[in-house]
Amino acid sequence: MRRIEFHDRAKEKQEIGDILGAEPSLITFVCGPINSGKTTLITHLIEELPADYVVFYINLRTKLLSSYGDFIESLFEMEIETGGAIKKGKETLAELVSGVTKVAGIPITREFIDYVFKDNKPKNAFSYMLKLFEEVKKSGKQPVLVLDELQKIGDVKLNGPLIYELFNFFIDLTKELHLCHVFAATSDSLFIEQVYSQAMLEGRCRYLLVDDFDRETTMNFLDKYNFSDAEKEAAWDFCGGKPVCLVELVNSGDRGKKACEMFNVTSGRIETELKVVNELGAKIKIGDNICDIHYPNLIEILRKFVERDEISINEIDEISKRYLVKENILFVDPLSKMIKPQSQLNLSAIREVMRDA
Ligand SMILES: Nc1ncnc2c1ncn2[C@@H]1O[C@H](COP(=O)(O)OP(=O)(O)OP(=O)(O)O)[C@@H](O)[C@H]1O
Ligand SMILES: [Mg+2]
């Protein structure tokens, strides 16, 4: 079986290395278009970290988060016995953290379960986590908390959004106590924009963009798998530097044909979505408002990409922007405040669809 090895990311790795080498002081939001390699980068870095870092990695992707209780449960790693009871394991926090280096979920002792889950108060869960991180620190190690797919908590309410409670906790861990590094990853650029505009986070967080590979990185990647010059050009024209697409091409028998198929699937999807809006109409919920999507506005915006690779955030109305981002056609880069297609594949597909629109 062909194994695709981790490729490059030297710049991003250096940036994260610098963050981890200093005292925790800011929350780090890791953002980037869908399938750009955020999770792969994070998990790769976790594997490479020396044993004096204790990483708590939680991926919310597969978790069903319909309530506050679901969220808290998703954070903790409880060993369940076959009968459904919680396993009696280590009893003290010191026992719990000894020997722990990389864990998927926050370990919890039997003694603390009631405390964490009683009253449905995030304060309890967070103060337990604080104690745990302090214990890690006492053992001479540096705790690191990573929450992947953070946007999933955006809709969870708890006398107001859970997100404020969580951000306050993150600020405590970093800027206030310098206790634990906090990384939060998401590909939802609308969520990141929302985060960006939070007054409470101003000066308390940084953004780290994990974008698709640039042209040079893509070519180096393809060289490893013996792509011919023509195959490399076709790959770049159709897929750009989207790692997931490049891996698909590497694994394909007929690379040129595969690139073409991927392009057809994406342009077909965009074409159908536009047709649906044109023929049936579509709506989007923004706050408490249900807003109509205007087909002519979508066309006017997408036409701008025929000549350009990206447009400014001011060139697009808010309703169309949210719709096109939600449908994973466009991506808002919070660092440059520019809007671009989710991938080179989407850019080429938009151009194709606009030729006939
Ligand atoms: N640096 C890399 N080297 C080799 N392959 C990579 C690299 N980064 C990503 N990939 C490939 O791309 C796929 C998608 O990457 P990944 O799931 O990390 O993206 P993501 O940005 O986390 O996606 P999402 O937006 O869905 O969260 C991976 O399964 C892997 O095959
Ligand atoms: Mg991911």
Explain the overall architecture.
The protein is α/β, with parallel strands linked by helices and 357 residues long. The chain folds into 2 domains: 10-209, Rossmann fold; 218-356, Orthogonal Bundle (Arc Repressor Mutant, subunit A). 49% of the residues lie in helices and 15% in strands. The protein is built from 15 helices and 13 strands. The chain has helices at 10-21, 38-48, 68-75, 93-97, 110-117, 122-138, 162-176, 189-196, 215-224, 229-239, 243-250, 255-280, 295-307, 318-326, 344-356; strands at residues 27-31, 53-59, 76-77, 102-103, 106-107, 142-148, 181-186, 205-209, 283-286, 289-292, 311-312, 330-333, 338-341. The strands form 4 sheets. Strands 4-2-6-7-1-8 form a 6-stranded parallel sheet. Strand 6, helix 7 and strand 7 form a beta-alpha-beta unit. Helix 10 packs across helix 15 (344-356). It starts with 9 loop residues before the first helix and ends with a helix. The model has no long low-confidence stretch (mean pLDDT 88). Magnesium ion is lined by residues 38-39, 148.
Which labels suit this protein?
single chain, 357 residues, alpha/beta, Rossmann fold, Arc Repressor Mutant, subunit A, 2 domains, six-stranded parallel sheet, three-stranded antiparallel sheet, 15 helices, binds adenosine-5'-triphosphate, binds magnesium ion
